[in-house]
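Weekly sync, protein design subgroup
Attendees: M.S., D.O., the rotation student, P.L. (late)

Item 1: inverse folding check
M.S. brought a backbone from last month's batch and wanted to see whether the design step gives back something sensible before we order anything. D.O. pointed out we never logged the input encoding, so this time it goes straight into the notes. Structure tokens as presented (310 positions):
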């Protein structure tokens, strides 16, 4: 298998970027509007400074969300914002077909269930990176999803968990999605994006009420914050000449989903896990019959969202 592709050949050059002086709330709105999980931060001369990600965003909103109860807002639980319409994979599906499904549906991972609908694990971009690394190193033939899925049961959450509890779990782990189970059956899923949307809506209401509060500490929670206070300045970067295998190893050994491509301090572009998988998919996939992914439709637990989520 060829590994001659470099960052320059697969990177995206047209990027959403942020300034360190941008308002945090407005920047989060932009991430959500543009449906992206993070953006590089650059100065006015195009010099790379760091990354403002979903994880940074959740961290920035924590203090504001903690004030929700004090200003009389409903405290949100998992069942009110989890996603129930899910793409699922089977354990027997070919990993290369599973990667195709992630790419074609533009999702970064999916739950894996057995024939009886029992939750088995997660197959994500990160686990797909392991497939890619094995293929690059060992010319791996096709194998199934069950051999690569993430089996960690500590990522499972309950429908009654609070928004802040789930946000904290995302802050403390590299996970981007947490399954919700009823017994051993998959009931739904909460992603970082789900949490960020719920927190952003709630934070907007907190800001509005806190500004009218006579309590100084509540008004302080509504004080404007800047991207520079929360951006990740230690995020990994790669050079334009870093090759496919080098980029794969960087993704495998870190929690990051994107690598800014930097040369002499200037941001040239960005390579995401999706970009890497797209570039490698045609090279590493063996010719064999396709498997199928299924969409699992699950009923919502509540008929309507609370006022803070409407």
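Designed sequence read out in the meeting:
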């Amino acid at each position: 298998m060829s590994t001659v592709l470099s960052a320059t050949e697969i990177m995206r050059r047209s990027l959403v970027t942020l300034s360190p002086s941008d308002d945090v709330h407005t920047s989060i709105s932009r991430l959500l509007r543009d449906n992206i999980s993070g953006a590089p931060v650059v100065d006015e001369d195009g010099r790379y400074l760091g990354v403002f990600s979903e994880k940074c965003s959740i961290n920035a909103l924590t203090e504001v969300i903690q004030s929700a109860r004090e200003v009389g807002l409903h405290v949100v639980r998992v069942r009110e914002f989890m996603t129930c319409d899910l793409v699922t994979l089977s354990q027997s599906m070919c990993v290369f077909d599973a990667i195709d499904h992630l790419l074609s549906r533009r999702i970064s991972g999916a739950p894996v269930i057995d024939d009886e609908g029992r939750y088995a694990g997660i197959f994500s971009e990160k686990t797909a990176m392991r497939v890619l690394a094995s293929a690059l190193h060992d010319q791996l033939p096709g194998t199934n999803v069950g051999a690569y899925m993430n089996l960690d049961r500590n990522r499972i959450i309950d429908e009654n968990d609070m928004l802040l509890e789930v946000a904290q779990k995302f802050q403390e782990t590299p996970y981007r999605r947490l399954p919700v189970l009823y017994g051993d059956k998959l009931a739904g899923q909460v992603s970082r994006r789900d949490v960020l949307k719920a927190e952003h809506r709630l934070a907007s209401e907190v800001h509005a009420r806190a500004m009218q509060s006579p309590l100084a500490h509540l008004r302080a929670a509504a004080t404007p914050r800047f991207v520079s206070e929360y951006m990740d300045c230690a995020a990994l970067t790669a050079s334009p000449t870093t090759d496919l295998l080098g980029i794969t190893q960087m993704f495998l050994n870190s929690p990051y989903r994107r690598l800014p491509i930097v040369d002499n301090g200037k941001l040239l572009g960005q390579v995401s896990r999706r970009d890497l998988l797209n570039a490698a998919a045609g090279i590493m996939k063996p010719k064999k019959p396709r498997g199928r992914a299924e969409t699992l439709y699950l009923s919502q637990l509540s008929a309507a969202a609370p006022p803070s989520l409407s």
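Discussion: The first strand starts at residue 38 and ends at 42. DSSP finds ten helices and ten strands in the chain.
Action: P.L. to compare against the previous round before Friday.
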